[in-house]
Amino acid sequence: MLRHTTTRSLLKNFPKAASSRSSYSAASATFRNAIPSRQLSYKRPQILPAFTRPTTSLLYATQAGSPFDRIDTKTEHKIGERVIHPDAAHVDTESSIRHVFEKSQVSPGAADESPLASIKGDIETIKETFSLGEVPKESLYIGAAGVLPYAATSLSSLYLAYDINHAHATGGAGYLFSPDTARQLLEIITPIQIGYGAVIISFLGAIHWGLEYAGYGGHHSYRRYMYGVIAPAIAWPTIFMPVEYALITQFLTFNFLYFADARATVRGWFPPWYSTYRFVLTFFVGASIVMTLVGRGQIVKSDSTLKNPAEYLKQDRDAQWEALEYEEKERRATIVKKEEEEGGRDGENKDDDGADEEDGNKTN
Prior knowledge:
The chain has 364 residues and is mainly alpha-helical. It has twelve helices and no strands. Helix 8 packs antiparallel against helix 9 and helix 9 runs antiparallel to helix 10 (243-267).
């Protein structure tokens, strides 16, 4: 109906509400052109304008009016007027050549005075590395005490290995223990070292959790938590491995955690002294594990009776199978014996019946 021409003409004749329309248009235009912080001003106070990003001007070589394109002609002219004088005493064919294998930068006089200067420098570097002057005393003392069980078990393994080898070489007993006693002690000491290593590896992973809770170096969530999960997940299964495999796995795990802690120290997740502290402790722990492996390797070559936890489990399993086979044989023997007894009784009954029949025939 409103599309008819007459209706449109009538609508044009009605007066328009200009005031209400204009106010609405002005308000809507103001709202559309407002910045987001102004639109949300009635909800909560905004601090975005206070943290506006600083605007930086970029300079390009092709930009018009760049200060780098301005050439100081006066200075260039002065440099061009300078006369270059030849200096044959200091310029030769090798004065501007850099050799692949350079000579020492030390003057000949100083080199003659200290021929072992490079070795002394290396020794000083090693001393500075192992001095641990920045490490807190509490951490230093407790860390050194934590290395003592590793050192004790590894040295004990080496001595017991030497004692067993000496007994086999001489055909008698060792210096302090007999071969059987030395083997028994070694079978006690090695599991202690493996169990202690699993505890220490788990502790190294837990340090990441503690610093994450404390917020040292910021919060990094799973990037930090994963070390606390990986460490015990690798450490505790080594208890059930053969001794050599367990020690090698723990050796690799200690080195992996050291590199992880060194990277974390560079990122600021640990104190600056922590990487050096971890390097020294990992060095002594790794050396202890290597000594234990060397000692056990020497023993295995001369004594095949040395067993590891996996062999003990295999022996127990074989003993269980032997016990089951023995029980099965006894059960079968009992069944056969019963069948033989029942068969003998049936034969006697048949004989009695046959004798009775013969007696009856005779009487008839």
